[in-house]
Fold each of these.
Amino acid sequence: MNDQISPIVELRDISKRFPGVLALDNVSMNVLPGEIHAVVGENGAGKSTLMNILAGELQPDSGDIVFQGNRCAIPNPYVSQQMGISVVYQELALCPNLSIAENVSLSSASTSNALSFVKRRRFAVKAREVLSQLGITDIDPNRPISKLTVAEQQLVEIAKAISGQVKLLILDEPNSALTREETDNLFAILRQLRDSGVGMIYVSHRLEEALSLCDRITVLRDGKWIDTVAAANVTVDDLIAMMVGRAVDDLYQRATDATTHTQTIFELHDLRSGNALKGMSFALKAGEILGVAGLPGAGKDELVECCFGLRSYTGKIDIQGNAVSIHSPSEAIQLGLAFIPADRRASGALLVMDVKGNIVAANLPSVSKYGLMKQPAIRATSQKYVKELDIRIASLSQKMGTLSGGNQQKVILARGLATNPSVLILHEPTRGIDVGAKAEIYRILQDLAAEGVGVLIVSSELPELIGQCDRILVMHDGRITGQFTRDEAAEEPILACAMGQTTHF
């Protein structure tokens, strides 16, 4: 990068404190025009707080923001948008009742100076233009957001962000729900934007992608600036060491050897649900970690919903040898199942409740008597899992919505563990989780398996499944097209089964 180019934005000694937590401690960094600048760090390192300050969602306690050479304040998101700052959050911010075109054009519609009719036809034309930039030509812009897959919604979120005169684009895990092909297409678009002079901040836990996509990388740890380095001069191991203060070796590799499991604890027989599941049959053993792989639309999402009573089905489910019918999550919990959803904000986190309330929410009988909550029991249970899962909070009374994404995920995992399940179902368990937290969660899952819990992991991260699972099932078009033992598992044959090109049993 040319040191003589003036930054689009410069952050100088930014500090931000929340009750009991110093989220940012004199952090400084800058972003140049035509640069993709990664910001990496563990959950709780301060990345989201820093981005929210640029987005106008939060105000710094001290420090200066210099935008295009002028010192400024960003009091609210509207001012941020007017300055040319657009943000793509990991947690989608779309209106599900509106169409793709209406969502893409929301910002421009809000700047109208007079009352007028909604120009839906013009919105549709604009949406097609922006979507075509992302290589999307086969989606009707009048289609409601609620009818889209998560991956399609993520692309619409990005289209909305680049629909205006963007000068600084902030992306927080923008491809967390995208396939490899969709990710490659997105990165091509980001490189085109970079070449046109747009500055970008790319927040991601996928360090390999940050190295291949970005020009410079800033590392944060515990709210402090650690270093800003050229991506060409560092490795993944270098970044991990800076992020966590130590090397994390063999992140995905399971520490224990594969063992033989004999007792079936959870079994599906010819499970069907609409066009999503077309006869799923498999068995999960006690103490086994079983993975499920597949491309978007393969039926993975519907599978976990059926298993936890969130979706109707036909077929048979056995738990510990007994036939059961699961029509609701409460029934599933009573039968010894726990579920960690992929979309933590929409389906998992009770954002307005505090941490301790979230942890005990699925197992209230254990912390109440005669209908009255026992506060000592609530605190004891919560403290146990906060310690075991290394959940970083100011206090047990901290609101769930104020935690970082990774700590929210840990609290949701704690809620599931608090029910003492015999079967733990996890859907994308480490999406948006940093490398240190991933290693901790893998260790917890291994310990649970060693205690005899059956663990079912549905994930789009093949290295995760290959490194952690005793067996991997592969889905395509609602059916199982492959089954791999730990010794057989490799990315190429699994992907071939996931695309329906071959089968493996």
Amino acid sequence: MEIERARIIEIVVSVLVVGLFIVLVIGVGDQFGQDGLGPDGGLAIVGAILAFVLVMAGVGIALAYWLHRDDAVE
């Protein structure tokens, strides 16, 4: 079973963005987690989640445009 080139690109980009999110959450935990997250740490986690959602939405739109723009011409 062969996987299309576009599908592989989508998978790789998604895994990279999720990896970036994990690194960001670990960084927030490292920065604010000595005595518990507290209000500032909680706000940083919410910001990380919001950034992840917005980045994934942007990546999805960009991939849909770049990978499937030739399909619309037909």
